[in-house]
Amino acid sequence: MSVGAAGPLITLVVVVVVFAALAPQFRTPGNIANILDAAAVLAVVTCGTTFVLLLGSIDLSAAGVMAASSLTVALLVENTRNGADHGLLGIVVAVLLGAALGGLSGLLLVLLRVPSFMTTLGVSAVGLGIATLLFAGVQPGVVDAGLRGWATGRFLGFTHLTWIAAACVLVGWVVQRHTRLGRYAMAIGGGEEVLALSGVRVAPYKVAVFTMAGAFYGLGAVMVTSQLGSGVVQAGADYSFSAITAAVVGGTLLVGGRGGVLHSTVGVLLLTVLANGLVLVGVSPYVQGGVQGLIVVVAVAAAAAPLRHRNQVVK
Amino acid sequence: MTLTFRPAAVLLSLCLTALAVTACGGGPEAGAGGSADTGTCDPADITLVGQVRNESNPYEASWLDGGDTFAASVGLQQQRLTYDGESTKQQEQIRQLLASGRTECMVLNVLPNGDSDTTPIVRAADAAGAYLVTQWNKPAQLQPRDYDRWISHITYDGVESGEQIAGSLFEAMGGSGGVIALQGVLDTAAAKDRFAGLEKALAANPGITLLDQQSANFSRAEALTVTETLLTKHGDQVTGIWAANDDMALGALQALEQAGRAGQVAVVGIDAVPDALTAIGESRMTATVSSDGPWQGGIGLAIGYCVATGELDMADVAAEQRAFYAEQFLITKDNVSEFQDPGTDPADFECANVFNRTAGPLA
Amino acid sequence: MSAHPRAAVRPAPPVLEVRGLVKAYPGVRALDGVDLQVRRNEVLGLAGENGAGKSTLLKALVGLVRPDAGEIRVRGERVRLRSVQDAADHGIGMVFQEQSLVGNLTAAENIVLGSEGPGVRHGFYRWATMRRLAQEQLDKIGSTIDPLARTDSLTFAERQMVEIAKVLRIEQRTHDTPVVILDEPTSVLEPGEIETLFEQVRRLREFASVVFVSHRLDEVLDVCDRVYVLRGGRAVGEIRPAEAEPGRLHRMMIGSTAAEDHYHGGAATPVPPTREPLLTVRGLTGTTFRDVDLDVRAGEIVAVVGVHGSGREELCRALFGAVATSAGEVLLDGRKLALTGPRAACAAGVGYVPAERKIEGMVGPMSVADNMTLAKQGVRCAGPVVVPRRQAAVVDRWISRLSIRTPGRRTAIGRLSGGNQQKVVLARWLVGGDVRLLLLDHPTRGLDVGARSEVYRLMRELAGNGVATLLLADSLEEAIGMADRVVVMSDGRVTTEVPCPAGGKPSPLDLVKEMV
Predict the structure, then answer these.
(1) For domain B2-156+293-328+348-361, is the CATH number 3.60.20.20?
(2) Whole-structure pTM over 0.95, yes or no?
């Protein structure tokens, strides 16, 4: 790992040490479990976004995809609105719906050659539309004990959501490091022309990456639904941007081909630790946003410092 | 028939009374700025429009449903508009609506996205001659009495609701203990007023300590995380959670459940969303406040309809009825059953009753 | 099969043959009927000046350019090459000048990219197999690079080895001798690395035919069995190194001496050597140049010549403040010029025309007017506000003075021809009326003959008005034609200075001897 890549990790360690010194509650095992639980959904969503960013594309569809998947899962498992009780099948359908919407973004990108910024924004609107239709004025509350248990049940002191997120990060890392899909995603971001000159058809891999990202969003939506106890249209409202922020802070840059799942996860943890620690240290809620932003900017700048040179164009 | 004639009769008697007491010449100025018009529209020609941010939350969806119920009661249909919380989209919808021509008999019941969005909407509607009722948001200096067609602005006293739920909360806590507060988006009037209400209640209850206050931006997911953190920070000291809306209260409930402290901490919110009512019914939550969404959706159209048809004379609309706080209802386990089936009472929308819920003039 | 002794190449049937290849672009005939043959197991050199048609020819050979006329034959059979894959299927592969590796992948992945074969099973990489596949390729060229190293952590020379190893994968697609094209492979290498590369090339010859492209004659003569010289889109001659005489090769590359007036020599105003220098550079040191001393007088055009790696481009950018320097000082008209950045240079009256016109020289979608007033905002603004009338007056005056052919000042600059674009870029420094020193980095790159001539005329006119010019010329001919003095740089140092007075111009050959 180069100095630049290690920057966010160093920042995370420094932030953790500082908070642990300032707030005794911060270093309790209970709080550590809390932080990991709070980071779980964002970590899963960020896994998906990371692969899209590796391509050099951008994905703003998480909000809509998660809304559609959240309502879908809430209406398919045992709930307060209809007689459905499909259990695990409902969860699988919600994840597949996410994958389908992600695939749609990818297809629009490669077939119509519309930039991903536009296609994913459009697909997000489609997802929100589906969610609003499914919502139909009455929030479906989740009754299904299995799904509710995702958020409440614990294993070795951590919530099931935390373990699911850890598994997703592991899967994401394996895909990135050891599969053709992951390696080609890296290569597309690093030099798409080179890939084309080497006789690789790039388009199917792009679609596959967006599909995989959609599946991660779908799973993230199921996790949110379990946490909130009902299907909510706003389930993913902030996740598109939070996930991109976390990824970039962690070192998965928007130019593509840089960073990866582990980098992004460091970013997720950094953001979550900051949100948790600032509350525990007792920073006024009126300045928390500003302080958090400042620390993130300083962290990113410190990480990028060794790479700067004169007249570098930064966008 | 009596309805049709009554406004004229009221006007006459009012004027006579006024003449008897003081000079009648001051009447119109004091009452309606002397310029508000009463319409002469055929009820069948009236267009009813309800506009809210989106239909993806229970409150605003129930608002539009209330509008539908009223429209059906007068044999019309409500045009349902949503603008996804985007100010520009809202303005564009209003522009297109008013460009359609037949605006003289159009009635708009609008939830402006923010304070500053109200001004252009009011100006456009007034210029086009459409009848307008706005709710929740308007800049303080912008007054319906300065316009002909902007009949009323309805809002709710956030200080009062914040105080009401705090009262219930403190009662449930037995008058002593530690409270954590979940604020809304900090720079909104609703968040500020509701929190001011909590502070008022705290001043009156020295046995209660405010342990911490954090913003969870009116969001269920954020409230969940923030509450988890605050529970870690303050541990068993927390015996009550005051949330500035029900979504955050529900998020807090989830956090309590996940921390294994469900039932040990009292939780209150505002808005009376269905999940909160269920929670109150099941004694998981202590109280909420209802502004009565279906009524809000119907009342704006009803006021406009009554004025447009001439059933309600603008001269009869008092100054304090043109910008007022509407009554809100504290819901606890005792009365929750009355609110669980959201509906409207047709009597509320009769022209004689449209201002019955006025709780006081807007300060 | 044993290596052929270089001096006695036996004629063998051509692996690759090109007949009458033509490719025309608007305004330029890049290939004008090229004929050549590549034989089995030989190293064929292709030499020629910039613009001789080398790169177009290579692109046609790997399917990136479709020729307008003529034919390509592989082992006697006529082929149409539509893509790099097509070419690879016929056993032709190229190591591109701008390297075509993905930096964030490992060397092994790059080598097998697109044809992983057993390296991938069910979508999962089998790193051990990948490593073995890559190692086989690297072994062919005797490279010791770790196949699992990240490509962007390798040196330029190592990356070149990876590229050669990658190109050799085409062997698997063909059962005959592959053709490996190396496009300017030495341009960015250190001398030691070049020697290693030559060894690789000789090793390659044992199982492949190599086309070696360079504009450096010594290299071509050193490593090749046969050399074709390209000029003006044609192969003008074939040479065997053993019988080659450098002088003859040079004359073939450069052609007969161009007419003097192409450079408007008559318009040149001699500058008395006694005049005080306007620009004085003393001991300037940067990352790729050291201890540079240089003087340019007002009204003088000084050309800096040198091969790739001489540091002249870097020097030029350093004088504009665009790259950092570590020592030395620069005086402009006796006053110290702060090299803090382009802003300071602009303010002092220094203008810079970059070589990469389309990337650094202009903002393509912006109008002619906006491009022209980009650096000297003062001419079009009152305070922070652009005054359209003021801008229009200034811009229209310069459009007519420089006879820029454009539909109007509002036309996007990207729609003009290269020559007119370049005039707008030049005008950017003239509109302020305060330019003292112009740094011209390949100002005629990519321009046709007519446009070149106009740029030359403009340079003469500016010199006549007392502007000092530092020129990095596109060719030696241009440097000699335009300059009053030529400064030769080599390995980051100024090695010598050759006066170039009108009527007493040195020959390109004299300069080449100084350069190499």
Answers:
(1) no
(2) no
